[in-house]
Fold each of these.
Amino acid sequence: MSIESKEITNKQWVECPAEEWSDAIVASMKLGGIDYLFFVSGSEIGYFQEAVTKAEMRGWQTPKLATMVHEGVALNAAMGYTMVTGKPTATAVHVDVGLLNYGAGIHTAWRGNYPVMMISGTGPRALQDSMPGARDNFVQWIQEPRDQGEILRQYTKLDHRLEHQDNPGLMISRMLQVAMSEPKGPVYMALPRETALLRLPGTTQFPTRDQLGLARPAAPDQSDAKTVAKWLIQADNPCIYTAQSGRNPESVTELVRVAELLAVPVMDTRQCQSMNFPTTHALYGTGPAPGEADVVVVFEATVPWLPPKQSPRHDAAVAWIDPPIQCNHVSRPWSSRRICGWPRIRQQPPAPFTMRPLGC
């Protein structure tokens, strides 16, 4: 029995050669910026090895497949690659047990804002011989939990189980669009074997990640930015605190320019995960504690101080400049009356934002 997927023609989408959904999946990965698929094999995801090998032999779009010996190693390798290159990466592992073997790397991917697409197969549901990829082993009756995505839902921006009515290339592009839009972060897709082996008519069409478009970075209101600049110019004992701004390398040069122009010291917080400011610079690490500064500027630092003992003094001016907050950051050490910065989503402090100028 052969089941063939028919797609709606859209001239604005890319067209790629593809015989099965798995071919469309790897093509969309590559066109979405993924260079490597860090892979730990399983009986229900062998199509990745076949699709990548086929694409390499025929000159089709595909990431390189890096075979790994353990899921934890695969996820950490993916995070390391995206940390260095700034590009998204992907991993593929074996059903629910492979997800569980990711271990604490799931936490690191979420808190580190790494755009990793985590994939695992699911046990086939189709009865034996009813379609390609259907059940052919006793274990496949017990391989899938009620909701496989729930295993790591609290640690991803988005999760999805690929279904027969989906466009496979589109769904991969959508996942990568979400992963690469600020705040960046991991996403998860469950891939049933019989779905990945659905036939295609020789080509497939889908929008790439860039055709869907990444969300543009948010920015402070210009009047707020001028106010913060005045605070720093008038300050007697200002300081800049950061933790993750260096994950965007172009920010390092700009932060050095600001610090040198206004002679403001820069301090890394304890949650530092990147090189945010040159450690050999004369202004690095020489600033006051938050409780001693009269102007505090925070760049991408979730917890720059421990409240209440280390909090800025009551008459200090505080500017908190951050991407939109991931929805499970349930608390922040801020005073809502002393904040300005980028718009925040899903999480708002109890009172509206207002800025307190110096001396108030």
Note: The chain has two domains: 14-212, 222-338.
Amino acid sequence: MVYLAYIDKTIGSEVAVEQIIGRVLRQPNCRYYGSEELNKAYFHIRVDEDKVFRKIIDELRSRLEEEGSPIKVREEKLIDKIDTPLKLGKNRNVPIITWETKHIEDKLQNIVDSIPDYHNFPEKTSNKAIREWTEYKLGDHEKLEIKRQEELFYTNQVRARVILQRAIIDQNSKVWNIVENWVEKFDALIGWGSEANDELKDYADQLVNTYLNEMFLKVNLDDPYMVKSIKVEKDESKMLFMKNIVD
């Protein structure tokens, strides 16, 4: 359910505002919870005159009563909520953590450079398959069985770059952005399931394993990220405890 809706009066007439509120209150698959705090929907309505706000609330309350709805409407002015200035705690600085890879970029590139140019090895790029079948001769006094075999060459091929990229990104996408991958040799067409296809996947494993085993995390203390203070309710009687929260 939508628990908070901000409505700017400039969107149209009072009817338009009422319709938006109605859509929120009548959302499908809504259900009641044990805590009343979870059964509330809040609407922040900005209006130019107080009487306009009052008109919207009165019309909404009247409509709900006519429909026999159990929903209750309560209005609060923002000015009524402001009593004393809110005292917040201090801001906190959190160091930024980055991946340091400069010391292994040459090593990763050497692996990429060792990948062969499959333009020069067409015998590795074909994805072969064997089709076998048996023919039976009908109508003869003796059953005649003939076994046949045929070698097939599939034509569904993609560029070597695509195979290498997929194999790397499936494990760690950052590696693909480090190495030089737009060289001409990666334009070679490779058949799925071919010998070259398997070799490219092995090279992808080498690149990812080198990256994960030799990169390290770097803590940047010179330019930290600032976490601003927030209001925290200290009175446990006013707290709402929940389970299975998705952050």
Note: The first helix runs from residue 14 to 25.
